[in-house]
Amino acid sequence: MTRTPTPNRPVTPLRALALAALVALGACTTPQAEPEGAPRKETLHALTQGMELLTLNAGQPRKIDKRVAVTGLPAGDALVGLDYRVAKGVLYAVSRKGMVFTLNADTGLLTAVSAKPLEPSLEGDAFGVDFNPVADRIRVVSNTGQNLRFHPDTGALAMRDPALNFAPGDSQAAFPPEVVAAGYTYNKTNDKLTTNYAIDRRAGTLVTQGTVEGVQPAVSPNTGQLRTVGPLGTGPLLDATLDIADVSGAAFAAVRTATAPRTRLYLVNLSSGVAQLMGTVGDGAPLIGMAIAP
């Protein structure tokens, strides 16, 4: 079919205004390129909801250095978080059914440590998983207040601790906790001290579970008592992961919000809670967990 050329129409002021509006709309909807930051000493492993393990530098999260499929998870189960057992240099993962696994960061292969699933399974829809370096136990917390410890050698439940709760007088004491991420510090001068930090998604705040190391009287994370440190500055969260480097002590959180639904990495100030944007993690896919390589 022959198409008759359309004569050129003069550009009227009204038409020019409409064209400018279309250009502006396109600029707003097109993702803006992020400047690449300087590399840092921390290497991160991020587990996506699509069951891929990403390896990246904390200073350049857009650049994925390695990507492997995670395999070996029994049918009907799902991973909820991961962390390094720094004392052994081994990466661990925990599943919704309460199974503990080791995870080979090079191949993505899961190997079961637990002999059988936990009865009942974990409670909640978002979880924090992290090693307590002093007790050498895996802390698992959830948005419903669940507060558990697992033994890394057997994968068995070590203790069901009291449910998470904000300390009396805390600025968030009127609200039920919605903890979705956890991370312990590593004290270089005293390996008997650690602080359990966590992220509450309701308002996007950094909290401690128990007291900060050195504070007296000391309150154990095992009590489940939470204390607000401060807002991340992101607003309410859809999800979050958190980990703290054993060498540098730097804390990183990867979060999504309703207004920024692509996963972005932040450097978190543990004294104030304020989060500094490092960049989008890869293509921004939702994450299950994140661990800093020792």
Task: Give a verbal description of the structure.
The protein starts with 12 loop residues before the first helix and ends with a strand. The protein is mostly beta strands. It has one domain: Neuraminidase, CATH 2.120.10. The protein has a 5-stranded mixed beta sheet with strand order 12-16-15-14-13, with no helix packed on it. A 4-stranded antiparallel beta sheet has the order 3-2-1-21, with no helix packed on it. A 4-stranded antiparallel beta sheet has the order 4-5-6-7, with no helix packed on it. A hairpin with a 4-residue loop joins strand 4 and strand 5. It is built from 1 helix and 21 strands. The radius of gyration is 22 Å and the shape is globular.
Pick out its properties.
disordered N terminus; Neuraminidase; 294 residues; four-stranded antiparallel beta sheet; five-stranded mixed beta sheet; mainly beta; 39% strand; 1 helix; 6% helix
